[in-house]
Structures
1.
Amino acid sequence: AHETIYRAICTPTGEGGVLVSFQDVTSLETAGQMRRDFVANVSHELRTPLTAIQGFIETLQGPARGDQAAADRFLATMSKEAGRMIRLVGDLLSLSQVEGEERIRPTERVELHAILKSVIRTLGPAAEAAGVELLIETAAEERWLLGDPDQLMQVFVNLTENAIKYGHDGGRVILSLSEVARDPILGLPALQVDIRDFGQGFDEMHSHRLTERFYRVDSHRSRAVGGTGLGLAIVKHIVNRHKGRLKIHSEIGKGSCFSVLLPTG
Ligand code: ADP
């Protein structure tokens, strides 16, 4: 149950009395709190790597001056931290853009099979570096819907990147595309894209919170693999914009499957 927050409004009645009325401002207060939490999170996410970088610089200027091996090590770490900050700022911009457009239904004709093929092309090198085989398992038939091609590409890139980052020990990531005659929740015919990995998975109690900004099952692991904590929040907004839904299944030790359902009707 949520608390209701009221604002008291006092209006003089003109006869020396005061009329007090109450306005329900719960949603305004909640929005304000969410904005403050978000700013606090972003500040923290940026300050941590900046503090680390400053520490390395001071060490290189002081105790480790002239130590080439230390310099190489510290520079590599600083470069990794800077890379993560650049990705974070990029993800923040994407998030604010997709949030701004969420109410505008996209209208371009998009073919999903071609998008999945370009996801495989884009992420092929990252998959290879992680020792993951990236596969499409679907009939090579055209599947059309109305959407925003760049944003849909971003959805499948984010999900596939996660499958590679967190599921690489499973050795394989499979993208599949199927048709659903009528999705019971959307109440419409839909196209379904499954992105499945065979990695460590997670407890499903996390599923409903994964699309919150900066929510991570394992923060240490996310940071180690360069995660920003915003990938699934971006996915959620884009899927919402397409009036679709995201289904998440995972089993510890077996892997995860993220399914995107996009209505075609
Ligand atoms: P991040 O940048 O941390 O990867 P995301 O929003 O993309 O942020 O994902 C949120 C969290 O969900 C991750 O930190 C990770 O804990 C978990 N997660 C996402 N995808 C997977 C997956 N395929 N397998 C296991 N955990 C995952």
2.
Amino acid sequence: VSRITVENVTRRYGDVRAVDGVSLDVAHGDFLVLLGPSGCGKSTLLRMIAGLVPPSDGRVLVDGNDVTETPARDRDLAMVFQSYALYPHLTVERNIGFPLRARKQRKADIRRRVAEVADILDLAALLDRRPRELSGGQRQRVALGRALVRDPGAFLMDEPLSNLDAQLRTATRTEITELHRRLGRTFVYVTHDQVEAMTMATSVAVLNRGRLEQLGTPTEVYDAP
Ligand code: ADP
Ligand code: ADP
């Protein structure tokens, strides 16, 4: 189901409060954008939601369970990184199938699911290639595929378009928005780009110096004084 509840979460690094007392409730099917300038705490907040960084205070609940108490492979979440984080020595097929192999699913089932995902993301012709033989946009689609393959309840994305050129960025933005509509899953998406936030989000959380400054629909946030 993946309802995400962020309860008064703080993360300190030494004297820096990367995230400072943030509370948020993300309903199933929302597209929440975490928006703000570099260094405002977006990545740290996303990583806490993913369970990759433990909060100094507060907690993150996914469907009522503290994410840090759920074993990583049982979390109903998938993360997509800015840098793609693909395995360079593995083919597209094996990169996408990786999360299923790690969970010891049957080979035939993995092949079928990878084919489905490759179809959705227009990667079917590229399954035998390795990441270095792909364009930036194709790599990002493989990274999306690896997130999609487990059919998680929520997708967490950290500036997934920032390594793409302007034209590809617009096209991929549209693809991600369509993916959200099609899947009806929860998306939490980090960006410093206001246009991305306004065109993709169902709700926007504006962060400033670790604090939640505004929360609302794109129109509410955009029209705020
Ligand atoms: P954003 O994603 O908005 O650019 P970050 O969450 O990456 O912001 O960083 C927020 C603040 O926390 C910054 O001041 C950053 O330097 C600091 N920070 C983030 N991660 C670490 C870390 N692992 N160690 C020390 N400081 C960190
Ligand atoms: P981004 O803002 O694109 O997420 P960063 O360059 O801010 O990338 O951070 C990359 C990695 O470095 C992250 O794992 C983050 O936690 C860590 N990091 C960020 N700021 C600091 C810092 N001041 N000291 C140590 N690690 C940091």
